[in-house]
């Protein structure tokens, strides 16, 4: 049941420290600060390219993984939406690694893409939350998210557990290829091991998100901006808001602002910014100045240093716990989930059963 929580979605958001910890435990040794992937039926060292295929929120998890795998394993990664991939019928060199991310393991387009990749001699790896699902059964190997049953139509804990598995996979690929130093692996492991506690810390500030949400419930359009791994989090935030509050929202790479979306900005458009302190901080912060100069109402998610460094104070800002930039997308997923939830509550929509949506899309 929902326990003390009003909705499954809220319960599932609050379960994240626990299920992320449980998922990490399957691969991460916190004392040694190493990651051990389960034995796979193919050699990760000989993989020359990676393709990640998924739909919806799972596609955004794959989009974060592209940055991670390219960075720590120095492997080229392509990420595809399953419904586009399957009909494009792309040519594929035999021996590539194709990863299929799906909470349910039953999404029709993702399954069709898996069958296409098998027929085209790819190594296939499923990342699912349901071990006995079709996508798991038809893949050569499976990595499991231990999110437990996800009831809310809006995916939350499945997403963040997908992210931690993908982070571990990126490190595993990096090690297999000799692309990552022992020291970097230890640093990432340490950061991952601390993530559940950082999320738990942030969840205690739910009331601050509730406050921010009151100013967004009246908006007609909302923009989400981010760079690097913050970009897919912006896309995910926009999807969450659309799904459960029915407010039109768009996620953009912050660097794209000048190429079009800045034309939308006025004082009626809230702009949610994902901006941890990392090597791209200044770039995004300068986009924030441009938005504010046009009257945009910026909600700034950063850390203490990042909030402090902002030249003009934002309409609203939250300093999240400071984390290593590698794990920032996992932590920054939480405020966008909570924001969507509280905006939906303010609007009185059906959070767990949004109109027109099914939990699992098993037909096209
Ligand atoms: O079960 P899957 O992960 O394959 O589902 C993919 C999408 O249908 C799913 O993530 C959908 O976008 C959610 N409603 C997002 O909250």
Automatic annotation (TrEMBL):
The gene is glmS. It is an enzyme of class 2 (transferase). The active site is at residue 359. One of its GO terms (biological process) is UDP-N-acetylglucosamine metabolic process. It is found in: Cytoplasm. The lineage of its organism: Bacteria, Pseudomonadati, Pseudomonadota, Alphaproteobacteria, Rhodospirillales. Keywords: Aminotransferase, Cytoplasm, Glutamine amidotransferase, Repeat, Transferase. One of its GO terms (cellular component) is cytosol. Residues 40-179, 212-354 form the SIS domain. The keyword Zinc-finger does not apply. One of its GO terms (molecular function) is carbohydrate derivative binding. This is Glutamine--fructose-6-phosphate aminotransferase [isomerizing].
């Amino acid at each position: 049941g929902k326990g003390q929580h009003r909705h499954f979605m809220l319960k599932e958001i609050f379960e994240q420290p626990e299920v992320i910890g449980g998922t990490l435990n399957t691969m991460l040794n916190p004392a040694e600060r190493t990651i051990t992937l389960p034995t796979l039926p193919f050699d990760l060292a000989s993989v020359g390219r990676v393709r990640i295929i998924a739909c919806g929120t799972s596609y955004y998890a794959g989009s974060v993984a592209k940055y991670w795998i390219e960075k720590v394993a120095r492997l080229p990664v392509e990420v595809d939406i399953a419904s586009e991939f399957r009909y494009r019928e792309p040519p594929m060199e035999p021996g590539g690694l194709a990863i299929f991310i799906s909470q349910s393991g039953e999404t029709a387009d993702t399954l069709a893409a898996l069958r296409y990749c098998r027929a085209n001699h790819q190594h296939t790896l499923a990342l699912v939350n349901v071990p006995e699902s079709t996508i798991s059964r038809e893949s050569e190997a499976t990595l499991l998210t231990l999110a437990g049953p996800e009831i809310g139509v809006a995916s939350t804990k499945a997403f963040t557990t997908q992210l931690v598995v993908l982070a571990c996979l990126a490190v595993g690929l990096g090690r297999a290829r000799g692309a990552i130093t022992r020291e970097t692996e230890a640093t990432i492991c340490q950061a991952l091991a601390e993530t559940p506690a950082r999320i738990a810390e942030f969840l205690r500030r739910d009331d601050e998100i509730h406050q921010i949400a009151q100013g967004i419930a009246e908006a007609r359009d909302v923009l989400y901006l981010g760079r690097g791994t913050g970009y897919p989090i912006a896309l995910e935030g926009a999807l969450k808001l659309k799904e459960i509050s029915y407010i039109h929202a768009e996620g953009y790479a912050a660097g794209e602002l000048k190429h079009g979306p800045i034309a939308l900005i006025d004082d009626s458009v809230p702009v949610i910014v994902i901006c941890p302190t990392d090597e791209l901080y200044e770039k995004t912060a300068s986009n924030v100045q441009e938005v504010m100069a046009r009257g945009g109402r910026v909600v700034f998610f950063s850390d203490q240093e990042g909030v402090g460094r902002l030249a003009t104070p934002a309409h609203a800002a939250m300093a999240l716990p400071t984390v290593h930039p590698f794990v920032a997308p996992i932590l920054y997923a939480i405020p966008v989930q909570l924001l969507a939830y509280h905006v939906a509550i303010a609007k009185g929509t059906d959070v767990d059963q949004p109109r027109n949506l099914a939990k699992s899309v098993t037909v096209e």
